[in-house]
């Protein structure tokens, strides 16, 4: 059975196979966010899994990199610090290298989700890389 779930992080609806139950945790295949199923009737709904911020963003970028086959370089720690700072100041993990704190810039940002890394070899701030080096 396939369920349609709207990701509250990237706002994309995706299909999830299996018999889902409330409190089950799924990973958004579009942005890597960890989601918790809240409702199954009449429709599946999910929210962001409650996690400490550092754990949340680390697991999200790890999951996203794994889904896309991307790697991190030595800037990872610095970008993560920037992301944590944005979370503290502006309430969400907006890209630390972008000026606008808008939903499209929540990490992984929209251009990154849409194939920028494949084209340019890395994302805007260099967190996600198509390959090592
Ligand atoms: Zn998502």
From TrEMBL:
InterPro entries, per database record: FTR_bsu, FTR_bsu_sf, LysW
- GO molecular function term, any single one: oxidoreductase activity, acting on iron-sulfur proteins as donors
Pfam families reported for this sequence: FeThRed_B, Zn_ribbon_LysW
Q: Would you say which domain of life the source belongs to?
A: Bacteria
Protein name as catalogued: Uncharacterized protein
